[in-house]
Amino acid sequence: MNYEILKKIPISGEYDEIHFGKNDVHSLWIKFYPVDSDCWFGSFASGSVGVSNVKIIEHANSSQVSILAYGAYYIVDIKSKTLIFHPTDDYFNDFKIIPDENLIFLASYYNICIFKEYKIIKKIKPDFIDGIRFKEIQNDVLLGEIYNPGIDWSDFELNIKTLRMKWDKSEY
Fold this sequence. Notes:
The chain is an all-beta fold. The protein has strands at 2-5, 16-20, 28-33, 40-44, 54-58, 64-69, 72-77, 82-85, 94-98, 103-107, 112-116, 119-124, 132-138, 141-148, 152-159, 165-167, 170-171. It folds into two domains: 1-86, no CATH class; 96-172. The strands form four sheets. It has a five-stranded antiparallel sheet with strand order 13-14-15-16-17, with no helix packed on it. A four-stranded mixed sheet has the order 1-3-4-2, with no helix packed on it. It has a four-stranded antiparallel sheet with strand order 5-6-7-8, with no helix packed on it. It starts with a strand and ends with a strand. The model has no long low-confidence stretch (mean pLDDT 91).
């Protein structure tokens, strides 16, 4: 699957158009080029003005794609052009997917929401923070950073089996 993030809103009627969320001037427009079907445009409503993260990840061995669009998170099947998952609990700035465990980790400025099979199973809310971002997964541990105002970014570890997080001297 290939895709292109569009810099301008496309001309209506040029290709099939699917709108996910309420269309607004801050929507993210993506042109999808599925391998065995026609091109189409997707419009993804932003989660919040001021959240600038855009991230797109294709799911291995699947026609699904995860999209972070200015604070809003979507999972879309690009073959059927359908919305699979769109949580509205928060404005998100990063995500990690663990397909083997059916887990999705969504980071906001102040918490991590953990979903299993599209249902929230845990929220981790460290005190006095102003940002979370994910780095990588090593040996069943999700590594990331938390921004503590006035101090700076510091590392955390979140075990994807136990869903326990260690940050600084605290465990959540």
